[in-house]
UniProtKB/TrEMBL annotation:
This is Bifunctional ligase/repressor BirA. Acts both as a biotin--[acetyl-CoA-carboxylase] ligase and a repressor. It comes from the Bacteria. GO terms for biological process: protein lipoylation; regulation of DNA-templated transcription. Residues 79-263 form the BPL/LPL catalytic domain. Its EC number is 6.3.4.15. InterPro entries: aa-tRNA-synth_II/BPL/LPL, Bifunct_BirA, Biotin_CoA_COase_ligase, BPL_C, BPL_LPL_catalytic, HTH_11, Transcriptional_repressor_C, WH-like_DNA-bd_sf. GO terms for molecular function: ATP binding; biotin--[biotin carboxyl-carrier protein] ligase activity; DNA binding; transferase activity. Keywords: ATP-binding, Biotin, DNA-binding, Ligase, Nucleotide-binding, Repressor, Transcription, Transcription regulation. It catalyses: biotin + L-lysyl-[protein] + ATP = N(6)-biotinyl-L-lysyl-[protein] + AMP + diphosphate + H(+). GO terms for cellular component: cytoplasm. Biotin binds at residues 92-94, 117, 121-123, 190. Residues 21-40 bind DNA.
């Protein structure tokens, strides 16, 4: 770890107070001049750090540059040792996850975070706008247990969606909703998308690894055709690093500590589809029906006006007259 990273780690761990250059130097076994140079370099990187005579250095309360130590600082103790990698810019965190899976021996719950994506991806080949400094874009790589069934694959996205709304509700006063299956809405605008991908051995039908990618518009401003449909969280006094960590904390609990039944109830309680008329297309035929329920596999159950019950496992669904 570089001296700059070591100093940043100390500053993140002591965000609420000033810490003297002498104390940092003593802890790291380096000179005060080396500490000063590290702080200068951190400021050049975009970190906002105050320096007060006789008190020392402190990260400003709203210094919001994404960094590894900020995220780790907010992680629950069970996952503080996770491999967290932060990028300034990348094509896609999900794409990078696939590259790493093919080139390295990764630990369970490896986390990739980027300040910008140049080729962000959504479901069904759609792009996800990921401008620099205004959103959070991250992927979580994990290795399912041997008894994981591919039939439960859609539940991973369900669990991610619940984790996101719980994290937002925990850190803000906002009330997001879930549009089946992978979009988070706030005030009738999409603020978040989820893309879950699996590496599967088709002979044994064993899922070797799963990558869940999440993109949240934090302060992104949209113009043109996206303006009426895309929005941002716009949460005051919330750091992006804190939001990333809280989503990861909740996702870990959803995967390993909470029952599928509990997750599904949470998902349904935040659904903006259930009880409403929805439009969708199936096998080239357009339908309108009432969204009735979400089953144990995460499928959407709908009922047409003539009483026909249909189960949707994928596809685009819109609320009549909205979304």
């Amino acid at each position: 770890m570089s001296t700059k990273d070591k100093v940043l780690k100390i500053l993140e761990e002591n965000r609420d107070t000033h810490i003297s250059g002498e104390n940092i130097a003593t802890e790291l076994g380096i000179s005060r001049t080396a500490v000063w140079k590290a702080v200068k370099n951190l400021k050049s990187d975009g970190h906002s750090i105050s320096s007060v005579t006789n008190r020392g250095y402190k990260l400003d309360d709203l210094s919001d540059k994404l960094d590894k130590w900020a995220i780790i600082n907010y992680l629950d103790k069970e996952i503080k040792e996770s491999d967290v990698r932060v990028y300034n810019t990348i094509d896609s965190t999900n794409t990078e996850a696939k590259r790493l899976l093919n080139s390295e021996e990764l630990s369970n719950f490896t986390i990739l975070v980027s300040d910008e994506q140049t080729a962000g991806r959504g479901r069904r080949g759609k792009s996800f706008t990921s401008p620099k400094g205004t959103g959070v874009y991250f992927s979580i790589i994990f290795f399912p247990k041997d008894n994981f069934s591919y039939n439960s694959f859609d539940l991973v996205t369900i669990k991610a969606a619940v984790s996101i709304v719980k994290a937002i509700e925990k850190t803000t006063d906002k009330k997001p909703e879930i549009k089946w299956v992978n979009d988070i809405f706030l005030n009738h605008r999409k603020i978040c998308g989820i893309l879950t991908e699996a590496d599967i051995d088709f002979e044994s039908k064993k899922v070797r690894s799963i990558v869940t990618g999440i993109g949240i518009n934090f302060t992104t401003e949209f113009t043109g055709e996206l303006s009426p449909i895309a929005g941002s969280l716009l949460a005051e006094d919330l750091l992006r690093s804190q939001l990333v960590a809280e989503v990861i904390n909740e996702f870990y609990k959803s995967l390993y500590c909470r029952s599928d039944e509990e997750i599904l109830e949470e998902y349904k309680s935040h659904s903006l589809l259930l009880g409403r008329y929805v439009n969708f297309e199936l096998n080239g035929v357009k339908y309108e029906a009432i969204a009735k329920d979400i089953n144990e596999k995460g499928n959407l159950i709908v009922e047409t006006d003539d009483g026909n019950i249909m189960t949707l496992s994928s596809g685009e669904v819109s609320v009549r007259g909205q979304f």
